[in-house]
Specification:
Largest sheet: none
Shape: globular
Distance between the termini: 10 Å
Structural class: mainly alpha
Number of domains: 1
Number of strands: 0
Radius of gyration: 19 Å
Number of helices: 14
Strand content: under 5%
Oligomer: single chain
Helix content: over 70%
Length: 292
């Protein structure tokens, strides 16, 4: 149950971070936003590490450094693939493809971690992931959506790459769990990625500091909320199946719908509220299956 609770808290934090990202993207380069999220994750790891009661026990250095190296490369590749997908297609085409993330993670969990969800949990996963896909679709007045535009787009290929990279990180992090706690390991992954992104942004002469100073509160909020949410997501994997955590993570989309209505006074759309409610029911099915 601990893993599910942490995954739910992570979803709320990531949904809040996404809300601030939307505000920040109007004035700050998208690559700088990614840099901020990486920085937030590293800072959270650095602040929490002194309070870790568990000692690091790297019994197999070769395996450890292999997992870390692969994870850093996968982290950078995932960010580049996601940004390339956004630049190659419309936002409304790319976002439904985020539903590939929990699918890839669940498959990797079964293949490399021997984690097999129950039938009830699988039904809940399908409901949550399917609902997240529906909520990501920008629907027109006639309630139609051209799926061919997704299946034939370059964005699909890039999002498949992104999904496989994220699934790789989840798998290596859980594999490395006997040697190091998740927060420290993710901190190292994000730290390596942060260094590479910093070098790239400096090489491109992107005025990072000036951009952040133009919107300090949203920038700080994105870094803090995303850093906490991302770290908790991986900690949750230590307590339950990665497929469950990945599916619960999709609830951040549903939480964003409710947050938009309550905090930003966006118009309440019955379709989105109905799907969000169904996603919560699906999450409850995963919770009940996890407790059984």
């Amino acid at each position: 149950m601990t893993g599910i609770v942490l995954a739910l808290v992570s979803s709320v934090l990531l949904a809040s971070a996404d809300a601030f990202k939307k505000h920040l993207a109007a004035t700050v380069d998208s690559w700088v936003v990614i840099w901020l999220t990486l920085l937030g994750g590293v800072l959270v790891a650095a602040l929490v590490h002194p309070f870790q009661v568990r000692e690091v026990a790297i019994t197999d250095p070769t395996t450890f450094w292999y997992f870390l190296g692969v994870s850093i490369l996968a982290s950078v590749a995932a960010e580049v693939a996601f940004m390339t997908a956004l630049r190659s297609a419309e936002f409304s085409i790319v976002m439904p493809l985020c539903s590939l993330f929990p699918v890839a993670i669940a498959l990797f969990g079964m293949a490399f971690l021997s984690e097999v969800p129950t039938i009830e949990a699988l039904i809940g996963i399908v409901i949550v992931v399917g609902g997240g896909c529906l909520l990501s679709i920008e629907r027109d007045g006639e309630e139609k959506f051209q799926w061919r535009s997704i299946l034939s787009s370059q964005a699909l290929r890039w999002m498949i790459v992104c999904s496989l990279c994220l699934a790789t990180i989840v798998t290596t992090t859980k594999k490395a769990a006997p040697m190091i706690d998740s927060i420290s390991f993710i901190g190292l992954i994000l730290g390596g990625s942060l260094v590479l992104f910093t070098v790239a942004l400096i090489a491109k002469r992107v005025p990072m500091i000036a951009m952040i100073r133009s919107a300090p509160l949203p920038a700080f909020s994105v870094a803090l909320l995303w850093g906490l949410g991302y770290q908790l997501n991986f900690v949750a994997n230590e307590f339950t199946l990665v497929a469950y955590v990945a599916a619960i993570g999709q609830l951040s989309i549903a939480f964003a719908v409710f947050l938009g209505v309550v905090a930003f006074r966006e118009q309440a759309q019955p379709f989105k509220l109905l799907v969000s409610g169904a996603m919560i029911v699906g999450a409850l099915m995963i919770v009940l299956a996890e407790r059984a």
